[in-house]
Amino acid sequence: MTAISRNPHLRQDFAASLVVFLVALPLCVGVAVASGVPAELGLVTGIVGGIVTGLMRGSSLQVSGPAAGLTVLVFEAVREFGLPALGVVVLATGALQILMGTLKLGRYFRAISVSVVEGMLAGIGLVLIAGQLYSMSDAKAPASGLAKIAELPGALFGAVGKTDALASLLLGAGTIAVLVLWKRMPKQVRTVPGPLAAVGLATVVALVFSLPVATVEVQGLLGSIQPPPLSAFADLASIGLLGTVVAFTLIASAESLFSAAAVDRLHDGPRTEYDKELIAQGAGNALCGVLGALPMTAVIVRSAANVQAGARTKASRVMHGVWLLLFAALLPNVLGYIPIPALAGILVYSGAKLIPVREIVSLWREHRGEALILVVTAVSIVAVSMFEGVLIGLALAVAKTAWEASHIKLEVVDKGAGPVQAHLSGNATFLRLPKILDSLEALPQDRPVELDLSGLHHLDHACRTALENWAERHSAVGTEPVRVTAA
Known about the structure:
This protein is α/β, with parallel strands linked by helices.
């Protein structure tokens, strides 16, 4: 029995795997360099995401690897705790994901407010763009997100007056221009993925013109793998490190499962099994942690490329991991020719795509509360930090839901004679109790009242007690007793 007869979709999957490999290669390297770790570690995560996570059940066509969305958080973790601690954080993240998947908590990530997730990605995108523009300008980026943005004009202006910095800036800008214009190229040209074309052209230009720009440092695949020492696990007693683990877990899991939902809309194949996908992501991250590599998430860019290239089964993503492994093992020195400003340009472009400008405009027109949550989450991430920004967004979303859940309407019908009719509808909670009592106490004291509560969806104990007390007071002045229609 031939391989094709065993897998009738092997040809489509093989072709798709090559496309995904070509898309993933520059992104794996770029994310690693931007995260402040050896470039090869990005390839390690891509290999694990393809071969290990790719073989497991969950989402059949979704592709995992290092993601731009975690770059800022990884960079901060490495700067604060050191590279050995990164493996501990990623391993703990994987263990938590496996636990949550086993407890069937994967589906609950879909309950997270979309505005919070989009705000999180927008905040990451802003910090990523600002940070990578410094790399393009051959300048050192400040530590905080606000400082990155505030000092950026000076850094860009300063680059214009320096030959090396100007060459770096122009090469990065040219990379972005190729990515923006690639969609308008003829179809035959676009068979080469845009990121690969942009990096390839930048590399050729840098070599031909001998541009004085920084290139990727190469250590070799085995030389870059550094499992965390046992002493690094003692850092798990640190509140700061535990907070980082929680942030990694929430963001990586939410991004992966939201990506799975998006990929499901792109094809007609089997739907994602969310809990199993979370276990698969956890297994991949656990192995990445053991190897001291970057954390992984499902990546919508690679996943969409996989579907659009005609992939039919998980074989395509597994083969893409094999191609990454072969490249890292056989051609590692090629990485040394890639200019860092070109990789920075790719991440600036990727960061811009994380900012949902159209969604913000649409939300502002239809749901201003959601738009506010999105913007506040993004600004908080830039101004404070990733973890605190997400917590602020979640708190706002909960507060907004509580406010809307307590919405109540009082309709008064007074025909001038007979009883005054008061109809309450919605949710009567203690949050709206002052408004309810103010409206009821404003009713005429010398007229009988019929209070209709049948339109209420919820009536909490505090409101029920307050309404009974109001009815007693209203009836105590000699008026007919208030007639109440129960909820």
